[in-house]
Design brief:
The complex is a heterodimer of chains A (about 260) and B (about 200). Chain A is an all-alpha fold. Chain A has one domain (about 1-20, about 50-145, about 170-240). Chain A has helices spanning about 1-30, 45-70, 75-100, 105-120, 125-130, 140-145, 165-175, 180, 190-220, 225-235; strands at about 155, 160-165. Chain A has a two-stranded antiparallel ribbon with strand order 1-2. In chain A, strand 1 and strand 2 form a beta hairpin. In chain A, helix 6 (about 140-145) packs across helix 7. Chain A is globular and about 60 Å long. With about 200 residues, chain B is α+β, with helices and mostly antiparallel strands. In chain B, about 60% of the residues lie in helices and about 20% in strands. Chain B has a 5-stranded antiparallel β-sheet. In chain B, a hairpin with a 5-residue loop joins strand 1 and strand 2 (about 130-135). In chain B, helix 6 (about 85-110) packs parallel to helix 8 and helix 7 packs across helix 8. The relative contact order of chain B is 0.13. The chains are: A mainly alpha (about 260), B alpha+beta (about 200). The interface between A and B is large, with 36 and 42 residues.
Chain lengths: ~260, ~200
């Protein structure tokens, strides 16, 4: 364990140098490291149009596919698929925990991948969680946030949904880092046989829980666009810059009082 | 000298007890949330009673535990000041029923799960405190659910529920403010829209 941690720190030193340089360059472009006001929305009119397009795409194509998926599978099968997909993405979390300079989380992520890929039958079962090695995945978006890159304005991306410039860069990086994607580059046969079907299954699995949250948030909303934006931007505020004051109050501790 | 010392002690004591009053009793606040969630799970969700009886019990439980007059006024934001007494009354009434209906349904989906209590966090707002809980999920880390509790005259009420960093009061306030701003019908249109949502929710039960 100790050897592993020393190894991680060694790698970290090199990465730190690279990151500090990148951060210095990027922060020159960003105006502030402060959190974006949840209601600030400079691209609202364009965003609303894309939101309406996405909404009809989800309701007419995406969600019917999800409901079909639920019909032809059992909960246990869906859990196996979700565990498999999560395990395939675990190395991305490992790299990002490393870049966030979180040795404990990095070690857990490495252990999770090792255990689940072997004892978990190629990732079909999340054995590691049962052993107390429970951990949520992390993303490049979270890494950028931890290095104090501002999130930027709220944007709605066609098909994908709510995002910010920071997260769009992050999710693109995560997508390109997926071996299933970059292996298509040199083998056309592979892409048709494995890559496309796998990517399809991966997104069907990932968006399954998203469907419930989306429907729950929009059902009683008088303005569904604002309901989704508010939830997304508030959720984003949990990402803290590593140079920020540790004692900073949580974002939801706003001044909550009324005139009586 | 004696009187001076006595006055000093009295001042310190008064100041201290005043300070103690301003601080919310963390244990009492946590116990209040524990009792409320336990009642919801044991006496309603897991109880062998009719759906009508469940609805009634949920209404009483949530109406007593949530300070919907306080939340309702907060979520209207600036628009509360310009609203007429009738509009205020009508808004609070529909907001109350819609929230209770929504939370009853959410609680129902909670079958077989439980809240794990993780202590409390102080709030910058006077007389308020956060009770931190997590809910174990099928996959990954447990979900974080934080209860914002307000103490008034020794009485505890929930004023906000924060799920994964998303405050329901803040979301409602953003949404209603945007709706009133974009809609020529203003608050009246908002009340009508919420009443229609409540009716739809009741009919799909």
């Amino acid at each position: 364990m100790k050897a592993l941690l020393t190894e991680i720190f060694k790698v970290n030193k090199i990465n730190t140098l690279a990151i500090v340089t990148t951060v210095a360059m990027l922060s020159a472009c960003t105006t502030s490291i402060h959190r974006t006001d949840e209601t600030a929305d400079p691209y609202e009119s364009v965003n609303r149009k894309i939101f309406d397009f996405n909404d009809s795409f989800y309701r007419n194509i995406g969600f019917p596919i999800e409901r079909g998926y639920r019909k032809i599978t059992t909960k246990s099968i869906r859990n196996r698929v979700a565990d498999f997909v999560s395990n395939m993405d675990e190395p991305i979390s490992t790299a990002n925990y490393l870049l966030q300079l979180k040795p404990k989380e990095t070690a857990i992520s490495i252990a999770r991948f090792a255990i689940n890929s072997t004892l978990g039958l190629a990732g079909l079962f999340d054995v590691a969680s049962g052993w107390g090695l429970e951990q949520d995945p992390t993303t490049t978006g979270a890494t950028l946030a931890s290095w104090c890159i501002a999130d930027g304005p709220y944007i709605v991306v066609p098909l994908i949904g709510p995002s910010t410039p920071r997260n769009l860069i992050g999710s693109s990086a995560d997508f390109l880092a997926d071996p299933v994607y970059w292996m298509t580059m040199n083998d056309a046969n592979y892409s048709a046989k494995i890559s496309y079907p796998y990517t399809f299954v991966k997104y069907v699995s990932k968006y399954e829980s998203y469907m419930d949250i989306y429907e729950e948030l929009t059902k009683n909303a008088v303005d569904p666009y604002v309901a989704i934006r508010s939830a997304y931007m508030q959720n984003q505020q949990q990402y803290r810059c590593r140079f920020a004051d540790e004692e900073e109050a949580p974002s939801y501790d706003f001044d909550f009082d009324i005139e009586e | 000298m004696k009187t001076k010392l006595f006055a000093f002690i009295l001042t310190v004591l008064t100041a201290f007890s005043f300070n103690a009053n301003a601080q919310v009793n963390a244990q009492a606040a946590e116990k209040f949330i524990k009792d409320t969630t336990a009642k919801g799970i044991e006496q309603i969700i897991n109880a062998n009673i009719s759906q009508a009886e469940k609805d009634k019990r949920f209404y009483d439980l949530l109406n007593g535990a949530l300070d919907l007059d306080f939340i309702g006024q907060f979520v209207l934001g600036r628009n509360w000041r310009t609203a007429t007494p009738e509009q205020r009354k009508e808004f609070i009434a529909v907001y109350r029923d819609l929230n209770i209906a929504t939370w009853s349904k959410r609680f129902n989906e909670f079958k077989g799960k439980n809240f794990v209590f993780k202590g409390t966090t102080p709030s910058s707002s006077k007389g308020q405190i956060f009770v931190d809980t997590v809910v174990p999920m099928d996959q990954g880390e447990p979900a974080k659910v934080v209860w914002r509790v307000r103490e008034k005259n020794g009485d505890y009420k929930i004023v906000d529920i924060i799920i994964e960093g998303v405050s329901l009061a803040q979301s409602a306030r953003s949404e209603y403010t945007a709706f009133i701003k974009n809609n020529p019908g203003g608050i009246d249109a908002l009340i009508k829209d919420l009443q229609a949502k409540l009716k739809a929710q009741k009919s799909t039960k």
